[in-house]
Amino acid sequence: FLGHVFARPQPGEHYYDSKGDYLRSKDGTAFFNADSQQTALTMFNGVTGKYGQISLGGRPLENALSSSHGDYDREYTLNMGAYYEKAYTGYLLAESADNFISSSRDDFHDPRFRAVSIADVFPDGFRRWLGNNLTGDEALKGPRIKTDSQNKPLVDADKYPTNGVGWVSWWPSSGPEVCFPGSESLLCNNPVTETPQVSTQTMAVDPQVGWEQQKFAFATTLMFIQENQRMNWTDQMRIYELGADADPGFDNRIEFHDPTGRVYVAKVLGTEQIFGKTVQKAIGARVLEWANVLLNRAYQTTTVTQNGVTWYVPKIGTNGQPLVKDPNNPLATVDTCEMSASCLALQSYASMPSFIRTAMAWFGYISLDLKGVY
């Protein structure tokens, strides 16, 4: 349920992203000439369907104000956006307070076993959910629509999805699965054979998870995930910045060399397959892996591979500046980052590893409260 809330798309018209791997909302994207793009999908607002088979749909991310009260429009809020639901999702998944009165030997010896969150109950699911939602990989993290053999969404005459919306379940041990509405139930994988009960031909829809949602997801997780006072979660979220931090010294690592000069390091804990794509398991490593994807799209780079893990280092030109790829010819370069959409995307995303590293310094501590004192 909480994964569904966090991934609710924007209602209205959607079109194919430039790479064709997910459907992007036309709302708020005039800079990308969205209105001229052919509509591939119309996402319905809220719940649709009939008795026995309903489908949960999108919800506006933004607040809506009146447009008919003149100077007093701001006094009339028409709806509150899904922004607020998304902001609290990390907290609801990570909160694990021990609210019991301490009255046993175990309570006064080691009571951490009683502080259990959803993240502790479904650790693989929570790890996948957080790590992938902290990236810009919309094709993995978004809800999904069934498609035909040409990878076109199955829609009716008004472009509404004919099979409802499939929501990603991150928790199964075999890997994420997509659950579509069926007759009086959701159809996911067969629990015995682990085979899909619905078509595996799907396409993602933009889940409206950007910087605003990502910073709250990570910060609230970090604030509450340590209530059991164990380090297993914070260790795999941690990102180091060389120079500001000492080199952590481990070899199972991935690095992100920001063209501005900063170098970030995270520990890797292996890889996994999500919807056919191989990605890093550890949360911090997944963030740096995505940063490297953007770096390689935007700059001329040198490839580094260590212990089976690959990252990139930007090449430097004769003017002492990193070489920005020409968007129309990857073998050529352009003079400034502003001339490349990929470069600007990297600039925006570089805030994420910086924020994670800073937040770890802010919240990475445990409190020492005496038991039995109220």
Which terms would index this structure?
globular, single chain, 374 residues, five-stranded mixed sheet, alpha+beta, 12 helices
Rounded to the nearest angstrom, the distance between the terminal CA atoms is 35 Å
- Average predicted confidence as pLDDT: 86
Shape verdict? globular
Helical content stands at: 25-40%
Radius of gyration: 23 Å
Instruction: Tell how many strands the DSSP assignment holds.
Output: 21
Number of helices: 12
Content-based structural category:
alpha+beta
Which residue ranges are poorly predicted, with pLDDT under 50 across at least 5 consecutive positions? Answer: none
Strands side by side in the biggest sheet: 3-1-2-12-8
Classify the beta-strand content into a percent band: 15-25%
Oligomer: single chain
Largest sheet: 5 strands, mixed
Outline:
By secondary structure, this protein is an alpha+beta fold. It has helices spanning 2-6, 83-87, 89-94, 105-109, 118-121, 123-133, 138-141, 211-224, 232-237, 283-298, 341-349, 351-363; strands at 12-16, 22-25, 41-43, 47-50, 53-56, 64-65, 77-79, 144-146, 167-169, 177-182, 185-187, 202-205, 240-241, 253-257, 263-267, 271-274, 277-280, 301-306, 309-314, 324-326, 329-334.
